[in-house]
Every structure is written in C-alpha cells, then in structure tokens.
Design brief:
The complex is a heterodimer. Chain A is mostly helical. Chain A contains 12 helices and no strands. Chain B is mainly alpha-helical. In chain B, helix 10 packs across helix 12. The radius of gyration of chain B is 22 Å and the shape is globular. Classes of the chains: A mainly alpha, B mainly alpha. Chains A and B meet through helix 2, helix 3, helix 5, helix 9 and helix 12 of A and helix 4, helix 6 and helix 15 of B.
C-alpha cells in the first residue's frame, strides 16, 4: 500500500496536474483558433465591458431573474461551486503537502470549516443527483456521461471526508481519495467540467451580444 | 408524446416540403451535409455549447412552449437541442427519415428563435443559435416546410416575400397616396427620390394584405415634415424568410439588395415599418453575412423613429387614446434591440390608460409566431397556438382592451392566440394609434 501511495502522490500527481494545466491551455487555445478561423463573429463582437457586466450579474446570487425563480438551486449551486473551489486548494492537509513537497506555503482553512464545506459539497452532489432523477426536464436530457461527471466530482470529496474522519481502512481510503482527485483534475479539460474555465467566455460572449448589439439585459 | 405523434402524421400529409425532401435523401448525402455544417460552417460557439452544457434544465422556464405544455420536458430548450443537434452528432448518416423529420419539425415549428432562453442559461448558451444551425442543415438537406420555402422562393425570384410584381407594388403605393390625399391634399409618397433623408422600407405582406399601413406611414411622414422616399425597384422589401429557412446565401442577396437600394438613392438612413424579424435580419444577421459589423446605412426601427419625432416635437398628440391598452414587447426589437423604454414613452404619450403585462420587457413571452414559425403555414398553426397558452393567460391578466404589438409576426401570431384562447382583445400597431391621436396640421376638416 505504501508503494501505491508513493505512486499516486508522485508520478500520477504530476501526470494529473500536467493533463489539467496543459489540457486546459490546449482547450482554450483550440477554442480561440476555431473562433478566429471559423467563427469570426465571436471575436468581432466580443466586448469586454459588456462581457464583464454579464459575468458580474450572474456572479451575484438572486440578481438574474432565473436565479430568483429557483432559490434552492441558487443557494445550493453557489455554495457547491465556492466550496468545490476553495476546499481542495486551502484544506490544511493539502497545504501541508505543498509545503512538504515543494516548500510552498500559504494560508489554510480552519479544519472545522473545511470539514463543513466538504459535507456541503457532498450534499450538493446528492441534490444534483436528485434533480436528475426527479425533475422531468433534467431527467429527459440526462445521459450516462452526466452521471459519470457527477461521480467524478462526488468521489474525491466523499473519500476525503471518510479518510479525514478515519472511517474505513485509512490507507485505502486516502489512496482512493488521491486517485479520484487526480481523475477529477485530469477530466476537467475533456468533459463538461470544462465549463470551469470556458464559462467566462460563453457568458462573456452572450453578454457582449446582448449589451453591445442588442442593447438589452441578459439576466 | 402520444399527441405529438398524431400531430406529426397530420402534418406529414399536409407538408410535402418535408415529406418529399426526406424521400430524396441518402445516408451519404446526410453525412456530407452534416460534415459540411459541423466542420466547415461552425466553430467555437457550437463546440463550446456542446462541451459545456451541463444539462441542468434551468433553461426550461425560458420557453413559452414548455410553460404552455405544463412542463412537458420535450419542449425545454435543452430538450430541443437533444432532439436535433445531439441526435445529428450521434447518428450522423445513420439517422432515419422519421428521426430527421422530427429534427426539422422541432427546429422549424417548436422554436421561435426568440432568445428568451439565452437569458435563463447560467453559462450563457444561445440555444437560438444552435437551432439556427440545425435549420441551416435542414435547408441543405432540402427538408424545409413547404410554406416557408415558398416565401423563400418568392424572395429568390422577385426579391420580395409575397410574389408581389413590380407593377402591383408601384400601383399599391400610388393607390395609397391617392387615398391619403383625400385627407391630406399635399401628401405625397415620393418614389425613388434621390438624396432624400429617409428611405422607408416595409415587408411585402404590407402591399399584399395591409396596404392601409403604408397609408398610415405616409401620413406620419408627411405630417412630421420628413424628406422621405420609397423605392419603386427591388430592395423595397426588408423582410427575410431565407434567414429563417437556413438559406444564408439568399439572405445575403436580400440584405445586399435592401442596402444597395438605399445607397443608390443616397439616403441618409433607412426607416423600417413595425416589423421585428426584418429588423433582426438587417441589424443583426444579414449585415454579418455581408461582412458588415454594423451596417452600411443607418437603420431605424419605426418605434425609434416615432420616438425621435416626439423628442423633436414634430409629432404631437391631439387627443389621447382612452381605452385601456397593454404592450407586447417583440423579441427582435426588445430582447434584440432594447427599444422597450422608447416604446413605453410612446404608449404613455398617446394612451391615457396603460397596463403592463407581466413578465415584460426583455422577459416578455414570445408570440410563438416569429422565427418563421407562422410562415410554416396552416399545418403548424395548432403547434404555435397550443404552444402559447401562457401568452393568452398573460394577456387576459392585464384586463386591457387593446394590445399594441409593434411587429407583424407578433401581430398575426397574437391574433391567432387571442382567437383560439378566447382572450377577447383587439390588436393594434403603434401607427394605428398614432394616426388616430396625432395632430394633422395639413389635413382637411372631415
């Protein structure tokens, strides 16, 4: 098990980060090239002011009309995304790893807070799963891939939570946790999770069209 | 779902455009068209939308079809993408004729390209764009509904949408001028006046069915003292059904002819009648195809024009319109061009009893006729009328007697909705109310 641990925190971690970083750069570059060669409108009508206006409005919960129509979803999705982003970066155990392996030190979340945030991510995943099962308009468009993506996000948090609380065999759990985390990282550029870094562009573009051309609000 | 299948059978019999088109297709042809559209004609947007849509279903309530069918999931915007684009991407040349027919029906008759759902998607996916791409594909496959294809044929042959012949067009203008001179003896509809300030353009259904609207426009132009003209030659029709069938090449020809007519007449700007889709074709879609970021000649929608006339004091109110009115915000000039506040300024100036409908402005429900849906003809009337119960309820809730719909498609669509759902309201264009209530200094006493 110790050897396996060595592999997942060593070479596999490098691979996961490399795939994530290079894959994301490649993806954005490919989109840019495609916009430039085949979809000239995107760049021609891109307008930073209106792009930011749109991003700002949609970054504030309950500002867009649709977010007011779905208050529970709004609270859950904002909580989910904030926790999903902050916990993996600022969790004490992760910060310690950065320090131990690379000598990079930075602030970490209080452990109790991080624990609650982890639980929130897990609950949010269950909420999203519930939507996929119980809401007809979501169920109708849900495919196997959507479940896989949800699982990819869910598992690192579940195993991380279990490992932290020493539920089940710790060593197995921690290896699984790291492995699932790496799978998630590597999957980002190649699955729907790429909305993580493409949304500013899609949001910004529709904001540019609505603001710059259509002179109307898009929220 | 049962009802949908029945309806489809009925439509199949009535629509040779799709039926005959399907008979001609081969898997190779389908494959090559899919390849052409997805590889050569589309890029970053379509790819990004396909990659990042997380299938959250939050767009559902953006659609009037979905709301009118009590949340039938197949009418959600994302569901329409699933039934069209995703299906095409997955099956490619192996798609069956039945499936392809469904693709065409969804794209042409169950989406108005009104872009309301774009305001409901948290990550900003433009479903109307996706459906436009699907229509482009259907056009290249030759499976366009017959009625709208006929209007495209008319565009192609005559450069207007309604097979209006040149002499009929000129005659209609002279006729309306003659009629209007009974009321205002000095009134003219100047034809082909070079160097005029304004070229006034209309959609072909005006001379065909509603020539009185040209009368009203002539009165407003004359009484405001404008230096204006109307072209006698092709380019007078600003409408564009080719934009909605997916025939972008023809759309480009039409827009070029419209702009070039204005340029040949050396006018300073084009003022357009109260039409939504034509405005979209000119300021937003056709200009892009021609490579204009904006447009070569300034284009002003009727609402904007009336508003300017009020600001300049050329248009004055004689007596206010007393009956309770409400205002329908057409997608192409409100969500598409932000003219909602100007429209309200005009309503408040001319009408003493204005009631807002809810939702309104950018969030107003679509008429379910636009995007070429009404032009797909009688076989699909039921689809758009039943698909807009929510509009009928919205209208009823205002308690108004008259609904102002400053767009031809909205006008005709709302007329059907009002009749079918027994709303009991009258429809009006702005020009009709303005004509009734404005000061006419040059008119002879009746």
């Amino acid at each position: 098990m110790h050897q396996v641990y060595g592999i997942v925190v060593g070479p596999l971690a490098w691979v996961a980060f490399a795939v994530f970083v290079l894959g994301s750069i490649w993806k954005v570059a490919a989109m840019y090239r495609s916009a430039k060669t085949k979809d000239g409108q995107v760049l021609a009508y891109w307008n930073l002011k209106y792009a930011l206006r749109s991003i700002l409005h949609w970054s504030v919960p309950f500002w867009p009309v649709n977010s007011r129509r779905h208050p529970v979803m709004t609270v859950v999705t904002f909580t989910f995304h904030i926790c999903l982003l902050l916990v993996p970066i600022f969790l004490l155990a992760h910060v310690v790893l950065w320090d131990y392996h690379h000598g990079i030190r930075f602030w970490s979340l209080p452990e109790g807070v991080a624990d609650v945030m982890t639980v929130l991510v897990i609950l949010a995943c269950l909420f999203f799963a519930g939507r996929r099962i119980f809401l007809p308009q979501v169920r109708y468009v849900t495919s196997v891939l959507d479940w896989v993506v949800l699982l990819i996000v869910f598992l690192p948090f579940l195993t991380g939570f279990l490992a932290y609380h020493q539920v089940g065999p710790y060593k197995v759990m921690i290896v699984l946790h790291i492995l699932f985390g790496e799978i998630m990282l590597a999957a980002i550029p190649f699955t729907r999770l790429s909305h993580m870094f493409l949304t500013p562009f899609s949001r910004g573009y529709i904001g540019s069209e609505f603001g710059g051309v259509r002179q109307a609000r898009d929220w | 779902m049962e009802a949908k299948a029945d309806q489809s059978e009925e439509q199949r019999q009535m629509d040779p455009g799709i039926r005959k088109g399907l008979e001609r297709l081969t898997p190779e042809k389908i494959e090559s068209v899919i390849d052409r559209v997805f590889r050569a004609e589309t890029g970053a947007r379509l790819k990004a939308y396909e990659d990042i849509c997380v299938r959250c279903g939050l767009c559902a309530e953006g659609c009037h079809y979905y709301l009118s069918h009590d949340g039938d999931p197949t009418y959600a915007p994302v569901a329409k993408v699933k039934q069209t684009l995703w299906k095409l991407l997955k099956k490619r040349g192996r798609i069956t004729p039945e499936e392809l027919e469904r693709v065409a029906l969804v794209a042409y008759t169950e989406c108005n390209l009104c872009r309301r759902c774009a305001m409901y998607c948290p990550i900003g996916i433009d479903t109307a764009y996706i459906i436009s791409v699907v229509r482009r594909l259907c056009h290249l496959l030759g499976i366009t509904p017959q009625y709208i294809q006929d209007t495209a044929h008319s565009h192609s042959v005559t450069m207007n949408q309604m097979w209006v012949k040149e002499d009929e067009w000129i005659d209609s203008l002279l006729w309306q001028e003659e009629e209007a001179r009974e009321e205002i003896p000095t009134l003219r509809i100047p034809l082909d006046k070079e160097g005029a300030d304004i070229m006034y353009s209309v959609i072909a259904p005006e001379p065909k069915f509603q020539p009185q609207l040209i009368y009203l426009a002539a009165v407003i132009m004359n009484e405001c003292g404008m230096d204006w003209t109307m072209p006698s030659m092709p380019g007078w029709d600003n409408s564009d059904m080719a934009m909605f069938t997916g025939d972008v090449e023809l759309m480009g020809r039409l827009k070029r002819s419209h702009f070039e007519r204005a340029q040949k007449l050396r006018v300073k700007r084009i003022v357009m009648g109260e039409c939504g889709h034509a405005f979209r074709a000119v300021y937003d879609v056709g200009n892009r195809w021609l490579g204009w970021r904006d447009f070569p000649v300034e284009v002003v929608h009727a609402i904007d024009f009336y508003w300017q006339m009020l600001q300049e004091g050329r248009l004055k109110v004689k007596q206010k319109f007393e009956r309770p009115v409400t205002l329908h915000d057409p997608c192409n000039i409100v969500r598409g061009r932000g003219l909602h506040e100007k429209a309200r300024d005009i309503v408040r100036t001319f009408c003493s009893n204005f009631i807002e409908m809810h939702p309104n402005r950018e969030h107003n429900y679509c008429c379910a006729a636009g995007g070429g849906v009404i032009n797909c003809g009688p076989p699909y009337k039921k689809v758009r009328v039943e698909g807009n119960r929510v509009k009928a309820d919205q209208l009823k809730d205002t308690g108004a007697e008259v609904v102002i719909a400053p767009c031809h498609n909205c006008h005709s669509g709302l007329k059907d909705v009002i009749e079918a759902h027994e709303v009991g309201m009258e429809l009006s264009f702005f020009s009709e109310i303005i004509y009734e209530c404005m000061e006419k200094p040059n008119a002879v006493e009746a």
